[in-house]
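User: My collaborator sent over this chain with a note saying "see what the structure looks like." That's all I know about it. Can you take a look?
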Amino acid sequence: MKANYHTHTYFCGHADGDASDYAEVAYKNNFQVLGISDHAPNQNINDYHVRMDMNQLESYIKDIEKAQNTYKDKLIIYKGLEVEYFQNQEDYYKLLKNNVDYLIHGQHYITYQEGLTNLKSGFALSTESDLERYKELMIQAIRSKLFDIHAHPDLFMNGYRNWDDHANRISHEICKAAQEENAIFEYNANGYRRGIVDTNLGKQPTYPRREFWNIVKQYKIRTILSSDCHTPNFLYDSVIKRAEEDYKSLELPDVGILHFKKWGWKIPHFFIVKIRSVIDFNFRNNYYAISVQKTHNIKKKKKNIQTIKINTFSGIKHSHLIFMTIINELFA
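Assistant: Without extra context I'll predict from the sequence alone. Here is the result:
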């Protein structure tokens, strides 16, 4: 595991540590990328014990920027937020996206109404109607394209528990939408901390549920492993490593490392793909649409890129730092 994009800090009210605490653990475990993604503030949801207040958002951003400055030569750190999807909240999502590099979608609540009233926890869904509504909100979130990663898409099984025809059907519908929209599903390792249940496939966490992920395998869906850690020492401990083994055994299309805008500009995907291939990085690029004309232009810089690597980075351990500095050289 070289990257984690689902990381919580003390700002959410139910986690420990600040961004620098997690960065320290990430660096010690040879991570290349760390994304901080605490629960987004929402003044319309009355659950302040699990998310920051809106007036804390600026301090949250500054805390991440402090870690970025401290670890700028050791680790790539991104600013993120985890947020629920509800209808008619476009301005709210735009506000959040303007403050961070990426958004994670986590459907922690459902509601049968248009507004944010009479919320029911996504951890406690128990009826077929609950699952149907969860499915509707998941598909709407996927089709909105507001989110970079969809966290724990099988969260509904935490309360529903018994895998039946209804769970099977809504899972196919969710996965069909994800394939159509080229969405990224997160295999959430934090579910391994929430208890084990007896299932037809043996003992397993309430989520991630293997029945759901076996369905994911039937579709062309990009996936990623995340720790969803709430304390620094849980970033990559034995529980996460066990989840990592199970995730790898599924042989899902793993996106590996994601790159978002940083330092005020956005890295073009075709630059990432071509430059990494030029300097022999192992990089999963099969899901990028590469323009022939653009890659041809990059090829012209191949000699210069190799020279930069040889002259400046001989013996450097962390390949991602080589990559980021080459980018800076090219755009200087």
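A starting point for your reply to your collaborator: The longest strand covers residues 76-83.
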